[in-house]
Amino acid sequence: MTLDELKTRINLIPPLPDPHLPPHAFPAAVLMPLLQTGRGLELVLTRRSRHLRHHPGQVSFPGGRADSTDASLWHTAVRESWEEIGLLPEQCQPLAQLQAQYTISGFALTPFVGLIEGSPNFKPNPAEVDEVFRVPLDYILDLRHHHTFHLRRKDRSRHQIVFIRWHGLWIWGVTAAVIHQFALQVAR
């Protein structure tokens, strides 16, 4: 998928309303950074530090909890991207805001799709990130690579869990859920 095709599809996506999120949910945002390369668009992901208390070693997007100094959730996403992987805020332009997701850890997580301009020099913060890597957007949005499972809990609610495999890594949890949501919206 080219950048122009993606922009056209994003512009045709009616924004999904945020679900009813618990009032106690902590506002947070992540950036789905896209990089234009000679091979096409690539999604930039991180592998969280294995020393972290929460979700160690998991594949994730750069992002985190909103601070009182953040002007908006977009600013939260780009600030956290600067802190985690050294992506300069002025190097990323917003393309889309996706539906917020309520996470098991109590966050109302708003994902933003952003286009990285120029050639970034990623510098992972070792306190938060072990690795920065890229996955071709065509691969990550191909629903044939999304393995979905439905779980029923004791309260009889059903939860869909998505797994995406990439070169020996499993992308799962809210990261895979966000990718899956985006893939479904772009595929329409």
Question: What value does the average pLDDT take?
Answer: 87
Reported by name, the CATH topology of the domain at 3-15 and 23-137 is Nucleoside Triphosphate Pyrophosphohydrolase
Number of strands: 11
What is the CA-CA span between the terminal residues?
14 Å
Question: Care to describe what's here?
Answer:
The protein is an alpha+beta fold. It has a domain at 3-15 and 23-137: Nucleoside Triphosphate Pyrophosphohydrolase. 23% of the residues lie in helices and 38% in strands. It has four helices and eleven strands, in the order αββββαββββαβββα. The strands form two sheets. Strands 1, 2, 3, 4, 5, 6, 7 and 8 form an eight-stranded mixed sheet that branches. A three-stranded antiparallel sheet has the order 9-10-11. The protein is globular. The protein starts with a helix and ends with a helix.
